[in-house]
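As promised in the previous annual report, we have extended the structural survey to additional targets. Below is the entry for SIS domain-containing protein.
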Amino acid sequence: MESFLCDFPKHISEGYRRGKASATKPLARPPKGILFCGIGGSGISGRILAHVLRPSLSLPFHTISSPPLPSWVDENTLCIASTYSGNTEETLALTREARERKALLLLLSQGGTLEREKHEEDVFVPLPGGLQPRFALGYMVGGLLGAFEELFPGLSFARDLEETGKYLEEIIPTYASPAGSPYRIARDIAGTIPVFVGIEHSTDFAAWRFKTQCNENAKHVAFASILPEAMHNEIVGFAHPETLPLSFVFLHDPEEPKFCTTMARAYLRHVAKRDCKTSEVWAQGTTPVCRALSLVAFGDWLSMHLARIHAEDPGRIPAITHFKRFFRKLECTFDGGEKR
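The corresponding structure token record, generated without further manual editing, is:
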């Protein structure tokens, strides 16, 4: 599995090429809003795309993981459907309902039902097979950036991706090493319940990625928390139980509001007084794409080191496999947002 993380920069570049090649014609009409539909490892790319586009895109951008489809989706909405397998029930249901409402569709998959049901007017970005969804993130993010560059001529990510590729190629050997910071933090949190603290509109997507990668790769319980919301409730919740072994990893972006940096530091001091282990991770780079994906790479390697510390196979996800088999036996599906 480490080879997938080592090839992350190549995945981004190849995904970008595939996205640009797939979006060969402009949208039939300019959208008035964008909705990303995806869940699990196929869904995190939407959170990252929304973060990257926030400074430059004037359209509202929302993400959703399961039905029902929001009532405002119509023929003037661009709906992005991302399911690596092409068979994710939640995403298929959302896509079918979006098609019924005549929404514009941008699809990402390595095949499956999503590809079989695509229409000629849809933009379809093909992903390579043989991966688990969470290890295909580079292809998905790159594919979305490439497609958006073609669909929205005012956007350009060439500089972002050039910086991202160079930075990741240089830093990944350090991230992969026991001498690197990802290993150090993994070692520190191995006997604890880590809480990854992000800042809304800055590193919230990264907190979720860190959490889910620790869950799946390391089989380790972990949680994500978002500031400033946590300062209005969560901060008072550490009195009971007294012996809960928590640790906190605060995720920062150099462009985050100074107010939020000060708030995060205050939160760090608060939990440190309760003898919780604390760490800080800062995004690197000058462009939004580089800063976002530098955090993703850090978290992915942290989870990989944590898996090795626990002697866990990062590729195995037995609980998820069991859950999917159980639901297939019950023939549970979504139909227009309702389970039948």
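The radius of gyration is 20 Å. Confidence is low (pLDDT under 50) at residues 336-340. These points will be discussed at the next consortium meeting with the crystallography subgroup.
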